[in-house]
Amino acid sequence: MKDYSKIFIALARSLLSLSLLLVPLSIFLGALLFIGFYSTPSSFQVGTQVPQGGIIKNSTKKMLTDDIWTAPDKVAMENAPNADQLSYGKELISHTSEYLGPEGKVLHISNGMNCQNCHLEAGTIPFGNNFSGVAANYPKVRARSGLSEDIPKRINDCFQRSLNGKALDPSSEEMKAMVAYLKWIGEDVPRGHKPKGAGIYQLGLLDRAADPIQGKAIYEKKCMACHGTEGQGMKAISGTSYIYPPLWGPASYNDGAGLYRLSRFAGYVKANMPLGATYKTPLLSDEEAWDLAAFVNSMPRPNKDLTGDWPDISKKPMDHPFGPYADEFSEKQHKYGPYQEIVAARK
Question: pTM higher than 0.85, yes or no?
Answer without folding.
Answer: no
